[in-house]
Amino acid sequence: MKSIQAATYPVHFEEKAYNELASIIKNRAYSSIFILVDENTFEHCYPRFMQLLQTDKPIEIIQIDAGEIYKNMETCIGVWNAMTELGADRRSLLITLGGGVITDLGGFVASTFKRGIEFINIPTTLLSMVDASVGGKTGVDLGVLKNQIGVFANPEMIVIDPEYLHTVTPREIRSGTAEIIKYGMTHDIRLFNEIKDNPNLNIVDLIHRSIEIKNEVVLEDPKEKSIRKVLNWGHTIGHGVESYFLDSETKENLTHGEAIAIGMVCEAYLSSKVLNFPEEYIHEIKSAIITIYGKTTIEESDVDDIIGLMKHDKKNVGGEINFVLLENYENFKIDCKVPNDLIKESLQFYNS
Questions:
Q1: 196 and 212 share a domain?
Q2: 268: exposed, middle or buried (C-beta count within 10 Å: 0-12, 13-18, 19+)?
Q3: How far is CA 232 from CA 178, 244, 264, in A?
Q4: Which end of the chain is more exposed for a tag (fewer CB within 10 A), N or C?
Q5: 155 and 227: one domain?
Q6: How far apart are CA 147 and CA 140, in angstroms?
Q7: C-alpha pair distances (Å), 40 with each of 63, 65, 98, 107, 267
Q8: For 95-114, how does the pLDDT look when each residue is reduced to its tens digit (9 = 90+)?
Q9: Domain containing 34: what range?
Q10: CATH code of the domain containing 147
């Protein structure tokens, strides 16, 4: 796969990526290398990575607990303390080896440690390959509120090695697929069509195009002042649902992609009501999403709390919830206002 050039860093693929990684480590003369992992990536991904890492620099491993519930400031403090105790300095390099939690949190840790050290992202899940590791967003959650604390900071490079996808569950692959579906609906409908029409599709074939789309958007609007908001299609309601289920003592946590998939169904409904998005497409989206992800029950008593959590979405201004909505596939509008009654209707539509 051909390398992709982002604003200040390249995205390299497969064998070439490891050659470029060795080159950058040699040429930058880092004082030490820290690798951030969780218990899963330490067991399943770290052995492959160390076989392919070409360096004689001193290496330290920092391991954190796996899961979204550990994507918080407490974990960051633990990593900062570990780096300090292990002698990290401004010439140290942090390599993140893991999924979205690792790349988001690791990038934030690196960009704030001693006012910023260099980091390299090596995503190991589909979600982190096509979304979380690309685009310069770093951060952690504040309680159950997603990504409330963070900074824009670019890695030095990104290594995309699809072999790591053999270490994750089918559920995690489906979670990442939601982000590819998002790119399909907003930018290249072929992606969505291939996913919904080919149950045995090799999803690796869609990774490069997905990163290409995200990179094009980020190059145009790196700080999410305007057009980059389109990357939040499905995320306004989706994040509300994800946070609510994360905080609930009676509901099973959803993966990020499962929640975003629900969000896309709901926001397709909103699109039909606000922008006349074709009704046939709403039902097409709902059918495809439920086929891929199954059905999650959202009780009527859940809805007000979900909407309450949506009010903390980072796109909001002056307390008003802002949506990305579709006029048609590949034709979107940002900063759309939607009344609460219609949001409730959209969640009922998903549930019906």
A1: yes
A2: buried
A3: 12, 18, 10
A4: C
A5: no
A6: 5
A7: 10, 9, 8, 19, 34
A8: 999 999 999 999 999 999 99
A9: 4-168
A10: 3.40.50.1970
Show which of 145, 168, 191 is a domain's final residue.
168
Q: What is the C-alpha to C-alpha distance for residues 29 and 74, in angstroms, rounded to an integer?
A: 31
Assign 314 a pLDDT band (cuts: 50, 70, 90).
low
Please tell me the distance from the alpha carbon of residue 334 to that of residue 276, in angstroms, as a whole number.
15
Q: Do 212 and 338 reside in the same domain of the chain? A: yes
Q: Which long-range contacts (CB under 8 A, 24 or more apart) does 212-219 make?
A: 212/4, 213/183, 213/187, 213/188, 214/130, 214/131, 214/134, 214/135, 214/183, 215/4, 215/6, 215/11, 215/134, 215/135, 217/187, 218/6, 218/7, 218/134, 218/135, 218/136, 219/6, 219/7
Cα dihedral value 186, 187, 190, 192, nearest 10: -30
Tell which residue, 177, 245, 257, 170, has the closest CA to residue 210.
177
With a threshold of 0.85, does the pTM exceed it?
A: yes
pLDDT, residue 200, reads 86
